[in-house]
Design brief:
Layout (H helix, E strand, L loop, with lengths): L11 H14 L4 E8 L5 E7 L11 E6 L7 H15 L5 H9 L1 E5 L4 H8 L56 H12 L1 E2 L2 E2 L1 E9 L3 E4 L14 H18 L2 E4 H4 L6 H9 L2 E7 L16 H6 L2 H10 L12
Parallel strand pairs: 3-4, 3-7, 7-10, 8-9
Antiparallel strand pairs: 1-2, 2-4, 5-6, 8-10
The chain binds N~2~-sulfamoyl-L-arginine, calcium ion (2 copies) and zinc ion.
The site of one calcium ion has 6 residues, from loops.
Family: Belongs to the peptidase M14 family.
Organism: Streptomyces boetiae
Protein name: M14 family metallopeptidase
Length: 324
Amino acid sequence: PGAAAPADYHTYGQVLTAVNAARAQYPSLVSSRVIGRSYQGRDIVAIKISDNVAADEAEPEVLFTHNQHAREHLTVEMALYLLDELTTQYGTDPEITQLLNTREVWIIPSVNPDGKVYDQESGSFRNWRKNRQPNSGTTAVGTDLNRNWAYRWGCCGGSSGSPSSDTYRGPSAESAPETRVVADFVRSRIVGGQQQITAHIDFHTYGELVLWPFGYTYADTATGLTQDDAATFRALGTALADTNGYTPQQSSDLYITDGSVGDWMWADQGIFSFTFEMYPTSAFGGGFYPPGSVIPRETARNREAVLTLLQYADCAYRIIGAEA
Ligand code: 0X9
Ligand code: CA
Ligand code: CA
Ligand code: ZN
């Protein structure tokens, strides 16, 4: 198979259509809300999937975020796979039925719709990563959303201060509307002083990796990350990787980043946050643009990992035999 064409992947408009179709077909199981707007004014949408979906029930909540990086279109297909699988298999597959009766699932299919549209809208891909926010004093466009989160932002040499860089961190933490919208959404899930979201996966491509905090330091434990926390991340991350054949490792073992989403989710919000780097392992598999023919296989490949994370969402520490 050759490389992908833009038409191999859903457009952002097609994603919104799919979300609306799922709501219409499964009104008691699926809802969606616009949680805010991108720099260029596009809707950033969160899908909720659970039994009695209209009610905010006392069930552990799990968040899946996709497409922080514009060109990582396979991650949007991952969101659409989860939407399809969790709806069509509810009431049929016993595990999915049990999980959706006891969990509230949130899916944000595109954190960076402006970047996705920019990368996909012409006849050929533009290899774009960042959002589409202008930077003052330069023609260089865009902030790397995954260097713009508000935990140890810019601390440690894991991002760039140059607007022309692909890892530009922005002028301040949460300066990108897309980062702020998702962070505000997560903060809005603090109910009665308790963060309702207990677990999270941020989907990226590529490398076939399961990554966990911290990314800003090589240290295995740090302020806000105890030995039990680190052991739980490692055990759960390894269990997830056992299901999809990815390589499990601490984020910083890949390379140091600062202001990336997982560090904020964990240190600021206490959420067990993983970063998945999907197919392929290397540029030889198509890099950011694998052919559309691999989409069914490479999205279904993460089915068990997602269900496993949902199972542990009541208490991740269970996996090391400890109770929170
Ligand atoms: O650099 C990133 O933001 C992620 N990789 S990607 O190729 N999709 O851009 C990885 C972030 C994981 N965190 C660390 N490596 N610290
Ligand atoms: Ca429910
Ligand atoms: Ca709830
Ligand atoms: Zn990425």
